[in-house]
Give the backbone structure.
Amino acid sequence: MSDQITLRQPDDWHLHLRDGKLLESVVGYTSCVFRRAIIMPNLTPPITTIQGAKHYRQRILDSVPAGISFTPLMTIYLTDDLSPKVLEEGFVQNVFTAAKLYPANSTTNSAEGVSDINAINSLFETMERIDMPLLIHGEDMDPNVDVFDREAVFIDRHLQPVLKRFPRLRVVLEHITTEHAVDFVETSTYNLAATITPHHLHLNRNAMFLGGLRSDFYCLPVIKRESHRIALRRAATSGKSCFFLGTDSAPHMRGAKESSCSCAGIFNSPYALESYAEVFEEEGALDKLESFCSEFGPAFYRLPLNKGSITLIRKKQMIPQFIYLDNERKHQESIVPFHAGEYLNWSVLTQAN
Ligand code: NCD
Ligand code: ZN
């Protein structure tokens, strides 16, 4: 049994960095391990312009700890009235790497998302023509659809028809949570891939109700039953290039999580790589960790592989209960990291180089 794993430096293909003080506090957890990340545009207000994305990129770069190389890959937030011209210009200028489709009101800061997927064909047409990846939060927001079925219904009602209409469009179904999504992605003949988060690999929906209502485990798409977790673990460790790493690390302050209407999102970036390593080891698939973390994502996005490496050692570490944003240690302004209070078996030995 190996006690040390050296990987090509990984990238995070789905990340929420937020803005302002929160951005400054969280970006270092990603940049000390990951070389690049796809940055989600769901700020308030969302990133819907070239200028907005450029400025946000700069704020991210300004917040990265000195001496660390980190490339934020920006995305644009699709809205009902976004012009295809902006999409194309931003992509051609290398400001946007991809576009993000949030069905309106599906998750945090998605109120300005797309209200009718059939009404944005001109955006899909443009993206297919210029070969710009489309990243999808795949949940159907029809109020008659059960919250646990939203992903499966979205695939059947929306994703399948969009792929049919735009067969050359490159699509990532983000943070998949169901066996249906796994089957759909792995059998698809289109240019379709999926990201998988650490928390959907570790948890089933019981976690949200263990001894009371636990908002720390509330995220969207919501965590599903055990059979789905098993399917996701099989997919992530399959060695199939259509499944790759995307943490969906989504920090919310304690005050917003400890609320009668808690925010959705799990902050996993401080121990994300260790968390994935634990899953791959449990599945007897540590030999597949590197391709999932560091190779399949760049292949999909047609970007070069990273040159640096990072080493994990088998060393137990206790995950802290809270991460404080500043030295004042204000409870409401702390964030609970994923795995808080648990032990993980692996530790990152060297910072990325
Ligand atoms: C994300 C957030 O907080 O921005 N929340 C989440 O539960 N994953 C949004 C998202 O990706 O759905
Ligand atoms: Zn997300």
Remarks:
- The chain has a mean pLDDT of 96.
